[in-house]
Amino acid sequence: PALDAVAAALDEAAAAQRDADAALAGPRLSARVVLGLPGVAVLFAYGMGIDVLATLRTSAGLAAVSAGALLYAAGALWIRTLAAHARPVATVPGLGLELIALTLSAGLPVDRARQVVAEEADAAGLAVDSAQVGPLIELAARSGAPVARLLRAEAARLRRRVAADARERAARLGVLLLLPLGVCMLPAFLLVGVAPVLVGLLTSVTPL
How wide is the angle at C-alpha 15 spanned by C-alphas 11 and 18, nearest 5°? Predict the structure, then answer.
């Protein structure tokens, strides 16, 4: 049962990771499209007879391209930060509680079970959180309920809560990622792709 619970927690973490990746797919593709649009705008301008690259020799063209590059870099960093916060934690919720319940079911006393789990987890390099064990043991002593059953129930509750939080973060991510696209990426396209064309068009009429 303990292995089944850990496997279920890992499946839930993998599902949350897939949700986060799916939410990221659209904004990442949009960012790549926006990044390629300035090249299309430059080719279109050359087809109209406008020397866009010559605008880089003007202060206005250089300022527009520099500002656009900074906005794009800021947008890419913003997207990466939002994605990092939406990823699920790389731990198994309630693992410490499951392991202590397992040792209790094997007949060890509570203090010895906690010691064994702490030693084995440290030797295996596992991060186990057993902070809830104390209150659950007190509850079992007052109510007469089996300690192991309470520990497993709390571990299951923790897994459900972590899975729900991960799905909520992935859902929010799809909306939050619209902010860097609208605030940084699209203005960057206007500055890098549209502004040089306009400057080149003005330069062809009157020198800046």
Answer: 140
What sign does the dihedral 131-128-20-68 (CA atoms) show?
A: positive
Q: How far apart are CA 156 and CA 10, in angstroms?
A: 13
The pLDDT tens digits of the residues spanning 16-54 come to 677 767 776 776 777 677 667 767 777 776 776 666 667
- Tokens 């299951």 belong to which residue? 156
Mind listing the pLDDT tens digit for each residue in 110-142?
A: 778 877 887 787 777 766 666 677 778 777 778
Q: pLDDT band at 59, cuts 50/70/90?
A: confident
pTM for the full predicted model: 0.60
* The residue to which tokens 């109209």 are assigned: 48
User: DSSP class of residue 87?
Assistant: S
Cα distance between residue 140 and residue 147, in whole Å: 6
CA dist 143 and 122 (Å) reads 32
Q: Are 9 and 92 in contact (CB under 8 A)?
A: yes
C-alpha to C-alpha distances, 208 to 6, 150, 199, nearest whole angstrom:
68, 77, 9
Cα→Cα distances 161→83, 108, 110, 135, 157, Å = 20, 29, 26, 19, 6
Q: With DSSP H G I counted as helix, E B as strand and the rest as coil, what are the percentages for the chain, rounded to 5?
A: 85, 0, 15
Residue whose entry in the numeric block shows the structure tokens 């997207």: 79
